[in-house]
Design brief:
The protein is an alpha+beta fold. It has one domain: Nucleoside Triphosphate Pyrophosphohydrolase (Alpha-Beta Complex), CATH 3.90.79.10. It contains six helices and twelve strands. Strands 1, 2, 3, 4, 5, 6, 7 and 8 form an eight-stranded mixed β-sheet that branches. The protein has a four-stranded mixed β-sheet with strand order 11-10-9-12. The longest helix is centred in the middle third of the chain and has 14 residues.
Length: about 230
């Protein structure tokens, strides 16, 4: 099957939207004035082996102090030498998964979102990868696994659920052997909805966070509550 060389219509529509900031999730999570650090993530779509679009996700190393074992997009903090958030997202993707930045078509930057646990203002950089090349773990201290997840799997209602931890309730995905929740799941959910391809799913189906994605402070909270 011939791979797509241009971004699919739904992704192009999303990139052209000027009302993304009005989406409830973006509107409810603006960075505070005293934010600590600017960061960026690369939300990278491209044609998969079957020619249908997929997205690049990483499983963070389980030894990290911040968000160990959790699923994320390639990305990280903006360094002084970066060309803004776009430069940071591309650099981090190259360092984490071996991506060639020259092969990425940057479609848009979405409004920054506040990630409270790390006090980062995170800007999603929307990208299209017309001719994907193999990617994988470059730095095992940062990344445990790299997975290209088909968009069709993200849209499958049987792979959707509400992730639960204490009072937290948020969208979740069971894809590519990954338990996707939190910031990454909410951003994927918003992207699909804003692109006009989101499918209905049963948000009453709940799943507790597996131990593999729980950080030390989350385990401590549970121990205190169970004491």
């Amino acid at each position: 099957m011939t791979a797509m060389t241009s971004a699919p219509a739904w992704l192009a529509r999303l990139a052209a939207r000027r009302d993304v900031g009005a989406h409830p999730w973006f509107a409810q999570h603006p960075p505070p004035a005293d934010r600590v650090r600017d960061s960026a993530v690369l939300v990278l779509f491209g044609p998969g082996p079957d020619g249908e679009p997929d997205v690049v996700l990483t499983e963070r190393a389980h030894t990290l102090r911040s968000h160990p074992g959790q699923v994320s997009f390639p990305g990280g903090g903006v360094d002084p030498g970066d060309d803004g958030v776009v430069g940071a997202a591309l650099r981090e993707a190259e360092e984490e998964v071996g991506l060639d930045p020259a092969g990425v078509e940057v479609l848009a930057t979405l409004p920054p979102l506040f990630l409270a646990p790390s006090r980062n203002a995170v800007t999603p950089v929307l990208g299209w990868w017309p001719r994907p090349v193999p990617v994988g773990v470059v730095d095992e201290a940062e990344v445990a696994r790299v997975v290209r997840v088909p968009v069709a799997d993200l849209l499958d209602p049987d792979r959707r659920f509400t992730a639960v931890f204490g009072p937290y309730r948020g969208p979740g995905f069971d894809v590519g052997g990954l338990f996707v929740w939190g910031f990454t799941a909410m951003l994927l959910d918003a992207v699909l909805e804003l692109g006009g391809i989101g499918a209905p799913w049963d948000d009453t189906r709940e799943r507790d966070l597996p131990d593999s994605v729980r950080s030390p402070w989350m385990r401590a909270v549970e121990q205190e509550e169970g004491a």
